[in-house]
Amino acid sequence: MLAVLQGLTEFLPVSSSGHLLLPAALLGWQDQGLTLDIAVHLGTLVAVILYLRRDLMALAAGSCRWLLKRVESDESRLALKLLVATLPAGLAGLALRAVIEANARSLAIVAATSIIFAVLLWLADRSGTRRVNAVPFSELTVPGALFIGVAQAFALIPGTSRSGVTMTAARFLGLTREDSARFSFLLSIPIILASGLALVGANRTASAAIDSMTLGYAAAVSALVAFLTIHFFMRLLPRVGVLPFVIYRILFGALLLVWLA
């Protein structure tokens, strides 16, 4: 169940961290522990790398051409923008992660952030839809990438949704829904990798009570569900937009508030 939750929610704008708090809080389950967290994060990382493999190969080739021959291209410029956009969340994670983990992992905060950032996502999508001309993906500026990166830092708060808040920022900048999602997914790779490495570091002092077969199964399930989720989300997004996810998040937050009352 936890592997499926991780695979479903990591890339949809609904918050994976918020949903992963639910089984322990609502069902009284024992916390899954860091070892399983590492496994399911690895699964989603594998899924997004496989899905974006052509983009990543082009980014790598463009970056190598720039490093070796100083030949600029759309791919090398995109690599720079992804690096710039990664920095704010990385720095915020190093500085604030322990504080947030200790003080913000509550269902009340998940409910509030789910509703607040759902409304922002809806406003950003409406703003982007009303534009006469969308901003081409290649014309995203470095300051624009930094703006998306600063927005991504808010995803440290459970319930915010990393993909949701980065898509919100990108839509406010005028990118199309598809390009907003694509940039968000590319940006997820270093963040998921960094989160996984942080969990590995923390897990050195934690007991691993789950056998390797179970961990492998969890990672595989998470990877399969995440890959299918990205595939169908990218196909449906141009047609249905973000409104179904906005409605779901508001209902999700409202139900949590009712349950907590």
Count of DSSP-assigned helices: 12
Beta-strand content bin: under 5%
Give the topology string: H per helix, E per strand: HHHHHHHHHHHH
| Fraction of residues in helix | over 70%
What Rg is obtained from the alpha carbons, in whole angstroms? 18 Å
Overall pLDDT level: 86
Class of secondary structure makeup:
mainly alpha
Shape verdict? globular
* Number of extended strands: 0
Task: Count up the domains.
Answer: 1
Low-confidence stretches: none
Largest sheet: none
Task: Give the N-to-C terminal Cα separation.
Answer: 26 Å
Feature tags:
261 residues, mainly alpha
Explain this structure:
With 261 residues, this protein is mainly α. It has one domain (2-260). Helices cover 79% and strands 0% of the residues. The protein is built from 12 helices and no strands. The protein has helices at 2-9, 16-20, 22-27, 33-51, 53-69, 74-103, 107-130, 142-153, 162-172, 177-203, 212-240, 243-260. The two termini are 26 Å apart. 41% of the residues are buried. The mean pLDDT is 86.
Outline the fold blueprint.
Elements: H1 2-9, H2 16-20, H3 22-27, H4 33-51, H5 53-69, H6 74-103, H7 107-130, H8 142-153, H9 162-172, H10 177-203, H11 212-240, H12 243-260
Write a brief caption for the model:
It contains twelve helices and no strands.
